[in-house]
Amino acid sequence: xxxxxxxxxxxxxxxxxxxxxxxxxxxxxxxxxxxxxxxxxxxxxxxxxxxxxxxxxxxxxxxxxxxxxxxxxxxxxxxxxxxxxxxxxxxxxxxxxxxxxxxxxxxxxxxxxxxxxxxxxxxxxxxxxxxxxxxxxxxxxxxxxxxxxxxxxxxxxxxxxxxxxxxxxxxxxxxxxxxxxxxxxxxxxxxxxxxxxxxxxxxxxxxxxxxxxxxxxxxxxxxxxxxxxxxxxxxxxxxxxxxxxxxxxxxxxxxxxxxxxxxxxxxxxxxxxxxxxxxxxxxxxxxxxxxxxxxxxxxxx
Length: 301
Description:
Blueprint: E1 2-6, H1 10-21, E2 25-29, H2 32-41, E3 43-46, E4 51-54, E5 57-59, E6 70-73, H3 80-87, E7 96-100, H4 106-111, E8 117-131, E9 134-145, H5 151-160, E10 165-167, H6 171-192, H7 196-199, H8 205-223, H9 231-241, H10 248-254, H11 265-275, H12 280-300
């Protein structure tokens, strides 16, 4: 396949590099400093199993999606519509756009901009950018993707590249399951600047997580969403399987960036208000992160 990664952050770089290692033609579309490093030395993919410089193309221009069979759409949820509009003039008509993003409605938002087939993916991976041209993989890496005309072919290629992938008719439920994990951990990790393993040892943290999860499940039930699997086991498993991982929200705040909190705990609060479901624990976490963001933005100005 020819693959374009729109939004080459930690998630996009990991999956792009895995596909490039398997022989696919991959181009990363990202920030200038990152693109320059990849062009000069390749992308360093550091995992527990190997540490390699992966050779692939890189560009700062959205036009680099031209000719791609598959677009891994990995931009922040706050940039969904604008990024979709940027790639729209350059997409092949038969290209599949696979959304690898936090939140539960990004595929719908992309679909409102593009005429291409769009499929949502649920991402379970712990990665971080440790510098330009360097992505570090902490754990996991599986994908759950929605059915589409080419999903089976894409899944075969991903599996062959070492990415466990399954196709599910209930991706919406899986997206909500992932949202609940994010709501439970992201803001707490961000406010404390602690990785999951240390975070869960904090006094009262387990009780806060329990309250947040209960609210999320109530909102999902009111929306008619069926959550697959054992939510409590999944919540416990995050700290066990990714003890050294800081949440993406924590990483954003540490770097002075705006986070996706509006599309995580903030989304639960908004949906709860619309459905008449109280969400006080999610509201507190949402407000705390927004306050920290505002403080940082004032410091920058």
